[in-house]
Amino acid sequence: MGRDAQRMNILAGRIVAETIKTTLGPRGMDKMLVDSMGDVVITNDGATILKEMDIAHPAAKMIVEVAKTQDDEVGDGTTTAVVIAGELLKKAEELLEQNVHSTVIASGYKIAAEEAQNIMENIATNIDLDDEQMLTKVANTAMTGKGAEKAQDTLGKLAVAAVKQVVEKVNGNWEVDLDNIKIEKKIGGSVEDSTLINGIIVDKERVHSGMPERVKDARIALVATAMEVKETETDAEIRISDPDMLQKFIEQEETMLQRMVEKIKSVGANVVFCQKGIDDLAQHYLAKEGILAVRRVKKSDMKALARATNARVATKIEDLSESDLGKAGIVEERRIAGDEMIFVEDCEDPKSVSLLLRGGTEHFIDSVERALDDAIGVVASVIEDGTVVAGGGAIDMEIARRLGEVADRYSGREQLAIKAFADSLEIIPRTLAENAGLDPIDLLVNLRSRHESDGTNIGLDVFEGKPVDMFEEGILEPLRIKEQAVKSASEAAIMILRIDDVIAASDLGKGAAMGGGGMPDMGGGGMPGMGM
Description:
Elements (H helix, E strand, L loop, with lengths): L1 H20 L9 E4 L5 E4 L2 H7 L5 H16 L4 H20 L4 H22 L1 E2 L5 H12 L8 H15 L1 E3 L2 E3 L5 E7 L7 E3 L2 E3 L11 E10 L19 H24 L4 E4 L5 H9 L3 E3 L4 H11 L3 E2 L11 E11 L2 E7 L7 E7 L2 H24 L1 E4 L3 H14 L6 H12 L1 H9 L4 H15 L3 E4 L4 E4 H4 L2 E3 H19 L10 H6 L19
Helix pairs in contact: 1-3, 1-4, 2-3, 3-4, 3-17, 4-13, 4-17, 5-12, 5-13, 5-17, 6-7, 6-11, 7-11, 8-9, 12-13, 12-15, 14-15
């Protein structure tokens, strides 16, 4: 209760932050996560580490929520957000020990977070969305230190090309739906062999060996229903009394399947993707007509195929028309790493694309996928917002410096909280220095003085061990990463600080169902965070 509850909650939050702090930056270390089954994940991606960690403490879970929000909103910067949240809690604890009330700290943090947002917007740089070189630098920054450095240029260009292909203008604004970029992983080759397919890769094979392996100028039919003889809706029994009736019954089934194939052929389709099953006899008829068919295609793949080829998914074969067909330059079955896959390529301005990732081992290819995910996320953010800031701790140092000036405008104890918030942001360059084996104190002093004299873009070059202009070095991040990180971290820290008691509840669901009179002592706000 009281001070003990606050101390324990702050400690739980700080432990989570300390755990992933060493993964920050290009020189960050990796974590090996081992589950009860002995499966291993090796990564330095903050979101992945926190998602896989077995965390029970409710306050610690709130810090994990910070990472989840950051990952959902931007796709990168999860470690930054959690490290800032942990440092905010640490500074808050120091103020609590000086008898500054937690409400005052929360109020100061709120003011500081709002001021920080204004500062970031003022110092952000607008970039031209056609500047592929700048977008590639943003992608490369996101991938630095994530096991994909040796192929950074290849992957960075792939990420930019993929995002630019699927971007769409909605109500005058650029929007990117990341679900339209599909990543397929195949072990074998090197990461430099990874390619962007202007179309879709379907991890399936032809249903019949007699079908063509390669179809040029493909006219694609997407069918959501099964190409099989339907069972009756109601329970029915067919009594057959002589062989002729049986023969007629079999012929009738064959005729139904033949009609389906004839309908597909009549509309001009030479490739069929079926969401459900295809009867053996239907496969035979399709092969005879030279139509390439694939069955049991995932619903998500059907949607992607529709967007890539400009086709419409038909729910009934009878309703299929020529206008429903999609187009692709080539549809081909290829053998990749021992598995057959269908490549739908050379689509005209596809709004859904696939990236084929290659790599030597499963662990390596997984880490490359996580790095590429981050790169795609940040490129999408920059295209949607059109703003970037300097990386390498530059923006954090500049906000800290300017917040120090803002704090002087406030009197009373809130000033202490604003200054604590400013100091907390310096944890990013400090951690970058520590993880690179550099002296954090000397570098921070040097960075502060450079920010006083040289402007806003001076950050820490961890390879050279000195402050440099991050824009000149090409270390850039989307403004949205920093905005979201500061916002999420401050909200989580404020919420944890406002908890003064942790109470064991029998069933929060029942408590809510009781209405106002169920648990009068809880007062509606009894246990924020315990339900997480």
